[in-house]
Amino acid sequence: MDEKKRGPEPDKYEDFLDDLSHFSAKDEEKYLADSTGKVPSEGEIILKVGETVKEIREKKGLSLKDISQRTGLQPEFLMEIENGNISPPLGSIIKLAKALEMKMGYFISGAEDLPYTIVRRNDRKLISRYDSKKSQTYGYEFISLAPHKKDRHMEPFLVTLEPSDAEERSSHDGQEFIFVLEGTMEVHLGEGTHLLEPGDAIYYDSTVSHLVKCHGEKKTKILAVLYTE
Hints:
By secondary structure, the chain is an alpha+beta fold. The chain has a single domain (3-47, 111-227), classed as Jelly Rolls, CATH 2.60.120. It is 25% helix and 24% strand. It has helices at 13-18, 29-36, 49-59, 64-71, 75-82, 90-99, 104-109, and strands spanning 45-46, 125-127, 140-144, 154-161, 175-182, 185-189, 192-196, 201-205, 210-214, 220-227. Strands 1-2-3-4-10-5-8 form a 7-stranded mixed sheet. The protein has a 3-stranded antiparallel sheet with strand order 7-6-9, with no helix packed on it. The longest helix has 11 residues, at 49-59. 30% of the residues are buried. Residues 1-8, 16-46 and 129-136 have low confidence and may be disordered.
């Protein structure tokens, strides 16, 4: 087997986890440093969801009020997203995609025109809360693992959860599967609360009110797969 195509050896698993947040994009360095004080690692790619949302909304001749009525999100919040002042959480991206009659993946990776997609370790796409000038924090950043695959219904992400006081729950169409890689994840699902450790997994309907966050003071890393119609 080609050495480059092999997964990490068991005894190198910790090193593999340490590398999950090392990505690529020098052309974004000045923007990020100026707006957030966060300097990206070499090759890091930051996607600006708000710009895509505004472009599609205007092409469809829809106002912020129209989108607000379709999503339940306040017009002021939508304007902040479009202006790049707020990086929207995944739940909001799903609602925006449905309101604009687009696949969620389009907002994650743009054009989707390939029958399959391969993401190399150093070519991951980071959709981050840090791409905003005011940098409103939701307690996580996430990396798309399936950009450009056309007609996909699943959205796999590597997610880094950071200690946060965020308590905002979400509910939207679809289903979610999460596998904990590192740290402890706290899940508020309906009326219950669950703590998941490395190796634990959870699968639930996204229509149920939920909140996934880091438990404790250490970062948590997870593999999350979202299914959308």
